[in-house]
Fold this sequence. Notes:
Belongs to the cytochrome b5 family. With 124 residues, the chain is of the alpha+beta class. It has a domain at 19-94: Flavocytochrome B2, Chain A, domain 1. 21% of the residues lie in helices and 15% in strands. It contains 4 helices and 5 strands, in the order E-H-E-E-E-H-H-H-E. The chain has a 5-stranded mixed beta sheet with strand order 1-5-4-3-2. The chain is globular, with a radius of gyration of 20 Å. Protoporphyrin IX containing FE binds at residues 38, 45, 47, 50, 54-56, 60-61, 64, 69, 72-73, 76, 78-79, 81-82, 85-86, 89.
Amino acid sequence: MATKDVKDDTAAAATSTGKLFTRAEVAKHTDTSQDTWIIIHNNVYNVTPFLNEHPGGEEVLLEQNGRDATEPFEDIGHSTDARQMMESYKIGELVEEDRTKDGGKKGKPWSSGNESPSRCCIVM
Ligand code: HEM
């Protein structure tokens, strides 16, 4: 009799690098030129070797060290090249509890899209 042994590994496959960090852990790595970690879209990057190479300059990265830089990163409108480049600096991801649900993008409070108009005018 063959017994089916189907393993459900979906939880284990949740991260590509396997390493998980809390925001508090990332915040400890702020030793400027020695140890600069940033969070972008719930992923953790060690950008120390990239500081000198960043086309936008090291200043902007240093300003974000230990922090979530998702918003400034997206505000710049980085290219797909930049997005591919950052993969090489990825060292892990945030633990489930510290993640932002939408991948780090903050929703605009004035455009939820789901609301019906609260007021309407009748012109007589
Ligand atoms: C690992 C993370 C990052 C990578 C790999 C990266 C890569 C790049 C690249 C390749 C460019 C050239 C333009 C482009 O291709 O889009 C660029 C420009 C720039 N980046 Fe980043 N970047 C990173 C994070 C950040 C962060 C966190 C900030 C802001 C806090 C930032 C601010 C800028 C600025 C201001 C420019 C110059 C834009 C311009 O001159 O028009 N970058 N970055």
